[in-house]
């Protein structure tokens, strides 16, 4: 994945727990890089190792970290560094989610060789939709959930998110039921 992802994990950790914890996490992960460059490519394994090490050092489950990372990605990385892109996504959560299937094609103007996620959206009722998240990468279910929660927060909307189905293989989506309460 692009280095921007690993840099954002660093931001999440240092802003919430301090830079000493981040140094411990890097040592624990066994990763040799001293710092990450946003536009450089790193093995996916690097990201997974950082999440695993963060979980061990901070004593928080990997799912909790992924959830927090998803929120951080929207509320900090997204809004602080890619405001125009985020703005273009929509003016409400529903509009943003309906546009989500095309979102990463605009991201690809900045990061041309990403392996983007794939989304499908099904409107169930006025107050409920189902979001299908397809990924070539395993284990990112709670990152996606954190992204949804972060988006809702950024639009100041109250929602509930229920995981209806969890990805088993590459062809199976995570399915989230999103309802406005
Ligand atoms: C601020 C705008 C955004 C930027 C710049 C961005 C950029 C990226 C980048 C660089 C990656 C790593 C992929 C790679 O390097 O191969 C990624 C992955 C991902 N992004 Fe975005 N993204 C943005 C917003 C969003 C939003 C709003 C969502 C969904 C609500 C989202 C969902 C995901 C997911 C789930 C992945 C994991 C990839 C996978 O499943 O394989 N992103 N994004």
UniProtKB/TrEMBL annotation:
<dbReference type="Pfam" id="PF07700">
    <property type="entry name" value="HNOB"/>
</dbReference>
<feature type="domain" description="Heme NO-binding">
    <location>
        <begin position="2"/>
        <end position="161"/>
    </location>
</feature>
<dbReference type="InterPro" id="IPR011644">
    <property type="entry name" value="Heme_NO-bd"/>
</dbReference>
<protein>
    <submittedName>
        <fullName>Heme NO-binding domain-containing protein</fullName>
    </submittedName>
</protein>
<dbReference type="InterPro" id="IPR038158">
    <property type="entry name" value="H-NOX_domain_sf"/>
</dbReference>
<dbReference type="InterPro" id="IPR024096">
    <property type="entry name" value="NO_sig/Golgi_transp_ligand-bd"/>
</dbReference>
